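Tutorial, part two.
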Amino acid sequence: LYSVDISRSANQVYNVLKEAINKVTQYIFWESKREFFQKTFELDTTNTSDVGINIYRLVAHEFSQTGKVDTSAKKTIFGQIYHQLGDNYPDFFKTEMDNKSFDVKFIGEGAVDGGGVFRETIAQLCEELQSHVLPLFIKTPNNKNNVGNYREKWTINPAATSHLHLKFFEFLGGLMGQAIRSRNYLELSLPNLFWKLLKGQEPNSQDLEEVDRLQMKHLDDLVAMDQKGIDNFDWVSITEEKFVAILSDGSEKEIKQGGREIHLSFSNRKEYAELVIKTRIHEAQLQINHIRKGFLRVVPECILEMVNHEELERMVCCLLYTSDAADDLLCVDLGGRRIIKKKKLQDRKF
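Running the prediction step on this input gives:
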């Protein structure tokens, strides 16, 4: 049991209670959590009117065939929705459970949105996010190199740091929040590292390996040099690296001040490995912060505090890890929605 010294500052009391909740939440039955979530959403609902969104799918499709990147998001479905809802998206995304956030009209197609058009729009939006047409996500190194586990994953583009791109990430966070509230799930294939960071949990080297197996193998080999009979005298002929990390987009970043001038040596190799891991794990922390900001504009923070990173992923994406659907969180009550099975590839030795 936890005791709280109420004579401490409000912020200190909050942090103590937050830590306590994080530790005990795994022991709370999911049905109890879900009942709490539903009641919380009912009290926090602001979407009382249906807003109409006009989608020009032909424009989005024709642009996707050009091979270009929609950096301003004016051609894509994602961008069309973003520009029509603007910064007031929480007013539309804060719905009760099982309600769609807005009505969709496919211009030139004559479709009537009874729910299916909205879900189709969300599905196509997710396809855009995980493609070349938007600059927000890129394939993980494991995906690009076809090595390691989780080769189907996408990760945040560390280079997407413009003011407009950060607003897109915030909007995406809002979309994730509406996915939880409306149960119109987002078909996103993102690594555990992403969900841990969004949750506020510190990832580890194993999470990085699920993103970049070659990087972790290189670091493991460096740290274990002495076990292979290599000492300081043999080092010069092995590597000429500096204290710089190669990020997921191929760009370089110093891992400590003046890193481009610091040579990797036998004596500092462990420090180098630790700093590379830390840098790579947090290479997109700025973007994560904006996604979290948008998420918390739609979903109360208490919801985020009561789930772990795996539950968070399943609440947003409705991924079924096993065939035991009855044990699988909100994904049990799909109401006819699609079930996505998560496939884990076996790690290959090389």
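The first strand starts at residue 52 and ends at 55. In part three we will examine how such features are distributed along the chain.
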